[in-house]
Every structure is written in structure tokens, then in C-alpha cells.
Amino acid sequence: xxxxxxxxxxxxxxxxxxxxxxxxxxxxxxxxxxxxxxxxxxxxxxxxxxxxxxxxxxxxxxxxxxxxxxxxxxxxxxxxxxxxxxxxxxxxxxxxxxxxxxxxxxxxxxxxxxxxxxxxxxxxxxxxxxxxxxxxxxxxxxxxxxxxxxxxxxxxxxxxxxxxxxxxxxxxxxxxxxxxxxxxxxxxxxxxxxxxxxxxxxxxxxxxxxxxxxxxxxxxxxxxxxxxxxxxxxxxxxxxxxxxxxxxxxxxxxxxxxxxxxxxxxxxxxxxxxxxxxxxxxxxxxxxxxxxxxxxxxxxxxxxxxxxxxxxxxxxxxxxxxxxxxxxxxxxxxxxxxxxxxxxxxxxxxxxxxxxxxxxxxxxxxxxxxxxxxxxxxxxx
Length: 381
Fold this sequence. Notes:
Layout: E1 5-8, H1 11-25, H2 37-44, E2 55-64, E3 67-77, H3 78-84, E4 88-96, H4 100-116, E5 121-124, E6 136-139, H5 155-163, E7 167-178, H6 185-198, E8 200-203, H7 207-211, H8 215-227, H9 238-248, E9 257-262, E10 268-277, H10 280-284, H11 295-304, E11 310-318, H12 320-323, H13 329-341, E12 346-349, E13 352-353, H14 357-360, E14 368-380
Parallel strand pairs: 4-5, 11-12
Antiparallel strand pairs: 1-2, 2-3, 3-4, 5-14, 6-14, 7-12, 7-13, 7-14, 8-9, 9-10, 10-11
Helix pairs in contact: 1-2, 6-13, 8-9
């Protein structure tokens, strides 16, 4: 039996192999949703990703019989470690064939990198920040993935059980929320009361609002404030915020983005919801995550012409003082009629910590199914 060789990624050709391994491993898989190749390249390039202001990383390939059989990123987020008073190295972008020697060798490479930097624990899957996919799928292997999450084969968590020494650090849950035929009367009554009692109002954005009126920055500032206490979160820098504004908003369907403002506080943003037509099927038609030659058409149809029956609930957040007021009801009061108009039948939440009962309680008035679960693992070095 051939030995597994671990090779550090050096140069553009190695990085290309690192990115393309996932596409090759999951080619024609009915549940995997490939990421845009350009996005993967930009996130992993140390001269392009603003997270490298406070992160350092190395990438590793596993080679066996002269073929790439696995990959992993070793990441140290110094800002998160400082905030949470930890010494952790993260592993992310992990993929491997069903060979325990390969998965073990990859994680050993991350562990050795972490030890060389004085780290005391290895944890993951995690990215550079919360804006990257988090957690390893442990339930829902027969469900379609999303643009914001990763899919993995069911043997991945089995390897962690076999290797030993790994323990659960946190689980995430995801939900399918069926869009009702009309606004539920309870939701309508609550939303109208909230608007009158607290002087909150719904604002729909224009591209000018986002790029010239400062709303792009306001939204990500809100994310910093609302996500600050979440597992492993590190505050987005100004450079990161500029990067995400340029990445996410130019092609956004603004009808599916809602902002809630407080009229008593000079229209301060109280909360927001960024949802997008599901791109999962469209991305499956993009050869290795590339828009050319014909991938762009499938993505355009999903975004601009809403040729999909689902939406991804990418980012939902409210400042703490508005959560107890039920202000999040206003998001769905605005969005449900828009979903119905465009033939949207379901929404899919993104990862939510299993302990975050406040977030999960907002789905109680809808017909929902907890269809996926993900796990972050931890091990002492």
C-alpha cells in the first residue's frame, strides 16, 4: 500500500489543485453545491482576502499514488483567539477520499502547524471568519446544499469517530421554512402593533443607498454588533466590509433584502434580513464553479428572474434591544408577499447554533423542518 505524502501548497498551480480537488471529488454529486471558482481563489489568496490582516494560514494537499486525495487549510485567527482567550488552530476546506490514512495525515499536518505556532487546540471545520462556511455535515446527507454552506460525504464524521480524541465543540442546525399562502394573521397583527408602538418601519434599499448612501457599511456594522457573542466570531474590519460589499451587493435582488429602522433614533438600523433566490441548482450547472461558458446564464436566471422555488436566508440580525420587541416579525411581514409574488415556496435558514433558542424561536409560527445538522470538532494538541 502506498504511503500518504503531505505537500504544502506553494504557488498558483498548487492552489489551483487545492481548489479543484473539491470539484473533482464531488463531480455529479446531486447534493453538493460548488462554490464560485473566483470566490474560492480570492478567499484563499493571501494578497486578496482582507482576513489576512489578522489571520495566518497554510494549505496542505494529500498525495497518494501520484494523485491528490485530500486537502485542508490550517488557519489561525489571532483576533478571535485574543477575544475568546484561546490558542486554537482551525482546520477548514477539508476534503478527502474514504481513506482513514489520508484524513489522519491531513489533520496531523494542521496539528503540527498549530503546535509550531504555540497553539493548544485544533478546532473545525471553520474558515477565516463567520462569513466562511462552518461545521461538518452530520445529518442531512440527502439534502441539497446551499451557496453559504459546505456539503460532505457521510464518511467524513465517521473518520473523526474512528480517529479518536475528537470531541464535539458545537453543533449547528438548519431549517426548511415553508412559505405560507398568505401572511399569517398572528404575524400581521404583531407586525402592525410593533410598527405603531415602537415607531419601527420597513425600508427597501436601492443600489444608490448601498453604494453611495452608506447602507452597505451600516449593514455590516450591524452584523458586527449582532453576531459579536456568537461562537468563534471576530469583528469584521473596514477592509473586509468593503470586500463583502463589493462581492455580494452588485448582483443582489434588492426586493429580497429588508432593513428595519427606528424612527425614534434618527432611523438607526435596528435589524436586517438578506435573502437571495437559491443558487444551488444554478451553481450545479457551472462547470467547476466557473461562469463561462454558460454558467452565467443559469445564475442570472436565478438571481434576476427568480427561476427557483427557494430562497436562502443568508443573514438575519437584530440589535439586542429590539429582539425582545419582536421586531424580526417585520422582516417576514415584508418578505412573505414578495416570496408569494415570485412563486417562492420555501426558505432555508443558514447555520444556527443549537443553543441559540432566540433565533430558532422565530420559526415557530411557520411550518418548518430541522433537516440538517453540522458539527465543529475540537481536540487538544
